[in-house]
Amino acid sequence: MHTPKSQLRRRRHTCPPRAFTLTELLIVIGLIVLLIALAVPAFRAMTGGRSIDAAQNQLAAVLGAARAEAIGLQKVRGVLFYLDPATGRVNAAIVREVGYSPINPVTNPPDYYLDLVPDRDPIALPVGVGLQGVDSADLTPAGARKDDGYIGFNPLNANPPPPENDATLRVQYGGVILFDGYGRVMNKFYGFLLGERPDPASKKIFTTRLGEIFGYKAGENTTVPQHYIPTQVAPGSVTDKMPAQSLLGFVLYDGETFRSLGYTNSDSQFDPTGAGNYVGGKEKDEEDWLDKNAAPVLINRYNGSLIRGE
User: Fold this and answer.
1) CA nearest neighbour of 173 among 85, 263, 57, 293
2) What is the pLDDT of residues 156-202, one digit of tens each?
3) Which of 263, 266, 264, 158 is nearest to 215 (CA)?
4) pTM of the model as a whole
5) Are 224 and 212 in contact (CB under 8 A)?
6) Engineered SS bond to 153: which of 2, 70, 83, 105, CB 3.0-4.6 Å?
């Protein structure tokens, strides 16, 4: 008995579809992996650029707030950068000048002692964004730097040190941008007020808000040092120290790439042993890399606007 042609056609059409072979699946998977490998660097580049733009917008807002307060109160205000070890992110906090006279004389006193402005929370820059401050470096006649042109982040070498046993958990301080009562950017020496005596007749010392950020116990604290003056090697010397000076601007860059090259945030001229060397050292290599890869942002001295270079 013969099967009708119509039934044969139906059987052919109802046969299950042919599955992919192992070779075909491997080719497809390989193409997907290749596309991902090509897309990830581009995606990182795009998001990195947006992160730096976002960081600049954040800093423009906090610097504008500090400048407006300086003009409104006719007092020195500024922005302190510091590195939070818990998150690895750069933080920016508004600081103010405070009246303070050390009990013991200071060899090289700063122009201002600084503490945090009350009731202002610091801002954290986007993850992965690196920042270093633009310093007034000493230049050769040809324009080459003879000392640090960028200020990174350094450990607080106060005595006694913050109470954490693990030094890697301590906040590292960066540079400071300062405005005077007219809103002008200043280049002045500064120190940090870590403990204060509200009653000069009393021996009670209380940790300042800035001291708390650096890791000292809040409230009454007889062990907190009253002040700390960051010092750097003076231009043209390897031993003479001077207080740190406030910044003229900052640079923003990809922190992950910076670290992958073996570079660090610490500054050789802030080394407490005085052994750091800029010319011909690793610090120069780091700063040459920042020259080529970081986005420089300077602050207009008179109106506080940010000027981004290339």
Assistant:
1) 85
2) 989 899 887 677 788 999 999 999 999 999 999 999 999 998 887 88
3) 158
4) 0.81
5) no
6) 83
